Amino acid sequence: SKATLFDKGTRVNITFADVAGLDEAKVEVMEIVDFLRNPKKYTSLGGKIPKGALLVGPPGTGKTLLAKAMAGEAQVPFFSLSGSDFVEMFVGVGASRVRDLFKQAREKAPCIIFIDEIDAIGRARGKNAMMSNDERESTLNQMLVEMDGFGTDTGIIVLAATNRPDVLDSALLRPGRFDRQITIDQPDLAGREAIFKVHLKEIKTSESLDIHKLAEQTPGFAGADIANVCNEAALIAARKNKNGVDMADFQDAIDRVIGGLEKKNKIIA
Ligand code: ATP
């Protein structure tokens, strides 16, 4: 989802409990959370804490959510910006925005910086993209300068999300930059069930729902689609003046979201 331009070191109260499934990714990011909580413990023997990690996975699978949960768990401020915000900007604006972001982050460290859709600025040269090459290169170069410019003991962890790690400029992936990759997969049946459970907490239901059945009926759905289904179902039931959302409302909501996904796929194809 879209990161606001940019989240200026806000405190978040999202935790790992809000992130369903993604068990392996959670184990990996917990390590990073622990670095933020106890940096001295890790540097005492001469080790270097990583500066950056890449969250790799399809749209809507919870990359932004997981990054926010890391900030919530470590109780540090969250800064973010999105690569797509730089599209069609004047040369130099992107670079100065990146500089500004890191300056503010240094002042508030320990903290997390999250860069959504890093591929929009981090594409290897010559690959077609929406941004002019000059602008992309100057923004990317500034990012590299900033990442090299802070020490591993500064307490800044830079996370970046992408669904196209293959197009990234290899300079971004060198040691001391985004040298760790954390994979976020499309949820399986059990994952979808867990995601439904998280989002159903906010919904007033009229009967005990068959959550397993809902998960079975939503193959290929990402977490964002499931959140959307829960919201749609609540609106459908409210429109019918019901006091609680029932299974039929969820069925309608699933059909509606499938319709929306098909439309989106048609536009892309
Ligand atoms: P994009 O690549 O499009 O930016 P993303 O991977 O960053 O997507 P999020 O923005 O984190 O996805 O997900 C959007 C919303 O979908 C979340 O705010 C949350 O409501 C829901 N969601 C996604 N994945 C999960 C999950 N694993 N558990 C619970 N909710 C989820």
UniProtKB/TrEMBL annotation:
AAA+ ATPase domain span: 49-188
Localization annotation: Cell membrane
Positions with a binding annotation for ATP: 57-64
Subunit structure, as described in the record: Homohexamer.
Job description of the protein: Acts as a processive, ATP-dependent zinc metallopeptidase for both cytoplasmic and membrane proteins. Plays a role in the quality control of integral membrane proteins.
Family: In the central section; belongs to the AAA ATPase family. Belongs to the AAA ATPase family.
Designated name of the protein: ATP-dependent zinc metalloprotease FtsH
Species this chain originates from: Niabella pedocola
Lineage of producing organism: Bacteria, Pseudomonadati, Bacteroidota, Chitinophagia, Chitinophagales
Gene: ftsH
